[in-house]
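Tutorial handout. Part one gives the primary structure; part two gives the three-dimensional structure as tokens.
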Amino acid sequence: MDRIDDLSKEGLLELLHVYAKNMLALDGVWFQSVESKLGMEEAMEHDRNAWRRYTVVEARRIKEFLHLSDHPGVDGLKRALAFRFYAALNGDEVMTAGDTLIYRTVSCRVQNARARKGMPFHPCKSVGILEYTYFAKEIDSRFECESLSCYPDVTDDTCACSWKFTLKR
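Part two.
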């Protein structure tokens, strides 16, 4: 096989996982480069800036791919979250009730990798708030997002992080 077009469905799914891992590795490599040279605080500032911009692009492309309406609500957000690049990598759970969606990352590759390397956990809450808020609002502008549990403010030790999305009508 010489081209992506030649791959079977199984081959394409395997390649999707390779690409997702590569994307996550790129995110980690640049972050650790800034962290080692300028410290965690500076790395976090750049991380927040990058994710604030990236997550809107990712959401817009997923929304277009899924042919979601302007206001697809909870069902649209649930579908879109399943198509994020790291949805193929992290174990997650989604629960919905009315105008609320709870999204839980059960196993986080980033935190697992940092633990394996003996590094302190990534203080991802401030990044996550921007990432998930901007993603959800790009899918449907009526969403509000809040962290239920995310390092360093862990309130639920059964998951890596947990987020609540509420549709405001």
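Part three, for discussion. The CA atoms of residues 1 and 7 lie 7 Å apart. The helical segments are 9-38, 40-66, 73-81, 109-116, 125-139.
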